[in-house]
Specification:
The chain has 358 residues and is mainly α. It is built from 14 helices and 2 strands, in the order H-H-H-H-H-H-H-E-E-H-H-H-H-H-H-H. The chain has a two-stranded antiparallel sheet. Strand 1 and strand 2 form a beta hairpin.
Length: 358
């Protein structure tokens, strides 16, 4: 009688405990490297260093009123630096941003005064004009394929000439007339150029708007589909278009956001000083771009944040006012500006390489 052998079930022996094997693709980076990979970390450290330096070199900075002035200077740069930064993340930049601020202010001032209308009419028309300038820049860019440098340089020259020529034609002077006694002025000033008291220190409303816009821009970049589109078109517009990103819409709206920023800062200038000098604004575009670059945005696009330009603008305000409070020659500001810009670029380069090093 044959015997049937029954095979015993195979038993899998668990591997001996030990360190988990990983390769370069799955290795977890340290917390330090993950922090260094953030574009705003380098400028944050730089802003802290500049702040501490002027606390020591210029004791006046420690006073509440002095710090309020620093924040005010930073906010007028920072409000424009935010949309400029978003545009740079999207792979473009705008050389007309500085004179566009003055164009907006001139439009609101002259329209209201010459037609004896409520200033809010001028404010709304100025917004339409600013958005139209931004849309024009974006439309020419996407339709012709020309670099944004050439497109916005042309717009810069056009606006600079129009600002001077039209102002002289309409007012007979290089500045607009005082609109402080016109209907709606007090309400508009409260929105764009008022101050409020914090512990006995007068703080400009632009500081609040600056931080609010920064929070909104950060949310858009990190939590919305439009933010993903911005990074995508900045990295490679061909690849972005291939996966369904509306490249044309994204580029044009980014330029329109710069127009919105120019309108807001222009309204602040108008209702702060009641009049506008038509030749101002030249050179400010470089300040806005530099604040964005110092804040970690790359000129090549596809990389950056909205928080970085906040610290970049703060560094500008700190240095600008710190030099005055220290009693130094204000001509040194440009030298400090160049050092900050070059230093920020080198630090960002080092940080990115360190963060991606295996």
């Amino acid at each position: 009688m044959g015997m049937t052998q029954q095979a015993e079930p195979a038993v899998d022996t668990p591997p001996a405990p030990g360190p988990k094997e990983t390769d370069g693709r799955t290795r977890q980076r340290s917390l330090t490297l993950r922090l260094l990979a953030r574009p705003e970390v380098g400028v944050f450290l730089g802003a802290v260093a500049v702040f501490v330096f002027f606390l020591i070199a210029a004791p006046t900075v420690r006073e509440g009123g002095s710090m309020a002035t620093v924040l005010y200077q930073s906010s007028t740069i920072g409000i424009m630096a935010l949309p400029v930064a978003l545009l740079m993340i999207g792979g473009e930049f705008d050389l007309s941003a500085g004179v566009a601020v003055v164009t907006s202010a001139l439009t609101a001032s002259m329209l209201s005064y010459q037609l004896t209308m409520n200033v809010w009419v001028g404010v709304i028309v100025a917004l339409v004009v600013s958005l139209a300038v931004g849309a024009f820049n974006g439309w020419v860019l996407v339709k012709t394929g020309l670099p944004s440098f050439l497109v916005t340089l042309g717009t810069f020259l056009i606006l600079q000439g129009v600002n001077l020529a039209v102002t002289k034609l309409v007012t007979g002077n290089v500045a607009t007339d005082d609109i402080s006694d016109m209907d709606g002025f007090d309400q508009a000033k409260a929105l764009f150029a008022s101050s409020f008291d914090v512990g006995g220190v007068q703080v400009k409303i632009t500081v609040v708007w600056w931080l609010a816009f920064a929070a909104l821009a950060t949310w858009v970049l990190l939590r919305t589909k439009y933010g993903n589109w911005i990074f995508a078109v900045g990295g490679s517009k061909e690849s972005a278009r291939a996966v369904g990103v509306p490249v044309t819409f994204t580029k044009i709206t980014l330029f329109m956001l710069v127009g919105f920023g120019a309108w807001f800062v222009g309204m602040h200038q108008l209702f702060s000083f009641n009049t506008v000098q038509s030749g101002e604004g030249v050179g400010q575009e470089l300040i806005y771009i530099a604040a964005a670059v110092i804040g970690g945005c790359l000129l090549t696009g596809g990389y950056g944040s909205a928080i970085g330009p906040v610290f970049g603008a703060f560094m500008f305000g700190m240095v600008n006012q710190g030099i005055v409070y220290a009693g130094w020659n204000p001509d040194w500001f440009k030298a400090f500006l160049g050092v900050m810009l070059l230093g920020a670029v080198l630090i960002n380069l080092y940080v990115r390489r360190a963060a991606t090093r295996r």
